[in-house]
Write a sequence for this structure.
């Protein structure tokens, strides 16, 4: 799209597009019915296919707007950076984010970073700490009561290439004989969660000898059910427990180190 727009502006005779076509337009005539969209236009906000890190459209729109807003040099520097190609992590929108924020050290770094964050978040790609941070220790855990449903991000704001994992802890009080359900759902931006229930000492709780840990197998499809986590148990004691949510340590290449989720607590 950027090449075609450049041709229209500089060598119009070499462009196959009609002069009236918007600069951000993309046309794909491979199939019997042509696909057309304009990266510069507002899209249908009701359709998830236009949003999140697993959307080809969202990625294209982010890059297109960074280009149109005058940050092509930053984009070029990030894409060609040895930091990107030398990373232990798969090359993805996440890795580009890490490299771009690390490399943006010029005088325009502040405006460039602000534009980068705005363009990512306009597509609901939220690679930032959530509003409950810090909540990575038992002492800072957010309290949940039955019926609560809250959203969070598994974003680890560490150094570039860091293998650290964001830990989100939520506390809840259990009573003997009551059944509890803790689950994650509504995973976004390629998220895949692991869920553990801890006691007041920080140890994994076991019920009838089975540890309360759920980390569903990674999937090569977009089946969220294989990425979300769910634990159901009857409390054997009355005390405070903790739901620990982290990124799964068994990610497929189609899943992300970051990602958003909703955690819900039920009791009956």
């Amino acid at each position: 799209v950027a090449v075609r727009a450049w041709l229209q502006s500089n060598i119009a005779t070499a462009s196959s597009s009609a002069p009236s076509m918007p600069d951000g337009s993309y046309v794909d005539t491979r199939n019997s019915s042509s696909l057309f969209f304009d990266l510069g236009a507002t899209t249908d906000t009701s359709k998830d296919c236009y949003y999140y890190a697993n959307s080809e459209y969202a990625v294209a729109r982010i890059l297109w707007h960074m280009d149109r807003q005058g940050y092509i040099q930053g984009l070029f520097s990030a894409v060609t950076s040895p930091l990107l190609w030398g990373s232990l992590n798969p090359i993805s929108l996440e890795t580009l984010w890490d490299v771009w924020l690390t490399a943006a050290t010029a005088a325009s770094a502040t405006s460039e970073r602000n534009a980068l964050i705005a363009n990512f978040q306009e597509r609901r790609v939220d690679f930032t700490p959530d509003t409950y941070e810090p909540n990575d220790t038992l002492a800072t855990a957010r309290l949940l009561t039955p019926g609560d449903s809250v959203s969070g991000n598994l974003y680890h704001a560490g150094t570039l290439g860091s293998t650290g994992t964001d830990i989100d802890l939520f506390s809840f009080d259990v009573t003997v004989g009551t059944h509890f359900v803790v689950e994650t759902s509504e995973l976004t931006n390629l998220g895949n969660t692991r869920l553990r229930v801890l006691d007041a000492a920080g140890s994994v709780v076991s019920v009838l000898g089975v540890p309360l840990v759920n980390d569903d197998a990674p999937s090569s499809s977009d089946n969220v059910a294989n990425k979300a986590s769910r634990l159901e148990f009857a409390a054997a004691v009355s005390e405070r427990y903790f739901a620990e949510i982290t990124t799964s340590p068994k990610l497929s290449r189609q899943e992300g180190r970051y990602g958003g989720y909703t955690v819900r607590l039920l009791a009956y």
Summary: The chain has a mean pLDDT of 87. The CA atoms of residues 2 and 104 lie 22 Å apart. The longest strand covers residues 179-188.
